[in-house]
Amino acid sequence: MSDKSCGTNGTMLFACSGGSNVAQIANDAAKALDRAGKGRMYCAIGVASRLPTFIETANKADVRVALDGCEAHCLKKGFEAAGVSVDVHVVVTDLGIEKGHHFDYTPEEVARVADAVASALGAQRHLSAGGSGGGAYPRDP
Length: 141
What we know:
Layout: E1 11-15, H1 21-35, E2 40-41, H2 44-48, H3 52-59, E3 63-68, H4 74-82, E4 88-91, H5 107-128
Parallel strand pairs: 1-2, 1-3, 3-4
């Protein structure tokens, strides 16, 4: 089943890709979700840099997913500064993965993040369809 609808960009995945293990885990999780058909990965820095065509494309998405590596929330803050809302926000360090300035991580850690995003997307779709509450990360206040 395609994640695209007429005139929209379906679910778009935006990931941190900074200089730490958790940033690279976020990036790898977004790639895995894209490959699995859970959304389409798109350029986060283009949006955060306030490039008009990137903002326009992001705003056409049905659901925007931000995968931040750590509690700094650089990605989410960049989107807010660009005036682009985030519908699902997942932070790698919130999932019990410790940040380090290295690139050693496991496929299991990537899978943990991808699973958290998939669960949050399921909750987001449930809420959008009028279901009652619950869910890990849909729409941060």
